[in-house]
Amino acid sequence: MTNLILASASPRRKMLLEQAGLSGFIVRPAQNPEPLAAAHLPPGEAVTAIALAKCREVAATALSGELVLAADTMVCLGGELLGKPKDEAEAMLTLSRLSGAKHTVYTGVALYLDGETRTGAETTDVFFRPITQEEIAAYVATGEPMDKAGAYGLQGLASVFVRRLEGDVYNVIGLPLCRVTELAREMGVRLF
Question: Do 181 and 115 meet the contact criterion of CB atoms below 8 Å apart?
Fold first, then answer.
C-alpha cells in the first residue's frame, strides 16, 4: 500500500477517507492561499486548479512512494460562486438564497505520486426545499455553516434541507471518493 498524504485540513475529507476504510494516512494541509488566477475560471476548472496548487505545494515535501491527495470544493448558485460565510449575517443570506433552489457543488481533486499527477472534477446538483427564516436562524446559531462552502454541511444538521441530489453525495460533503479511486487506479494505486 502506498503511503497517503491528505493535503487538506478538512475534517470532513479525513472522515470520508476513514469511513471508506482507509487509515494510517498523514494529514498535511497546504499552507499557501488559494491562487487568485483560479477565480476567473469556470467552476470545474477553478476547483481543479486550486486542488492542483494545494497538491503541488504538499508534493514538494513528499517522499518517494507517497501519494498526495488534495481537493477543493465550491458551491455555485445561478452562476455565482458561494464560498464560506464571513459571518452569521452572510450565512443567513446564503441559506436564504439556497432555499427552494437548485445549486451545483463542484469538487476538484488532484493526486501526485513520484512525479506523476492526475486531476479531475465532480459536479453534483443539490435541490433544497423551501426553508423558513426561523429554520435558517436556528441552523446558523449552531455554528455549523461557518466553515463550509455554501454555508451548509450535508452530513450534518442541514441534511433536512435537501430534497434531492443528482450526482455524488460524497462530492457535496467534500471528497468524491469514486473519482479519487479512479484517478489513483490510473496511477497504479489501489486505495481501498
Answer: no
- What secondary structure does DSSP assign to 105-141, as a single string? EEEEEEEEETTEEEEEEEEEEEEEPP--HHHHHHHHH
Dihedral in degrees, nearest 10, Cα atoms 11, 16, 17, 20? 160
Name residue, grid cell 443528482: 166
Name, in order, each residue with C-beta under 8 angstroms of 90's C-beta and a sequence gap of 6 or more.
Answer: 151
Residue 106's pLDDT is 96
Catalytic status, residue 72: yes
What ranges in the chain are assigned the alpha helix state H? 11-19, 43-59, 88-98, 133-141, 169-173, 177-186
pLDDT lower than 50: segments of the chain: none
What is the reported pLDDT for 181? Answer: 95
Phi and psi based region of residue 167 (left: phi greater than 0; alpha: psi -120 to 50; beta: remaining):
left
Query: Strand 80-82 and strand 116-128: pairing?
Result: unpaired
pLDDT (0 to 100) of residue 192? 77
Say what the pTM is: 0.91
pLDDT of residue 41: 86
CA atoms of 165 and 169, how far apart (whole Å): 7
SS3 34: coil
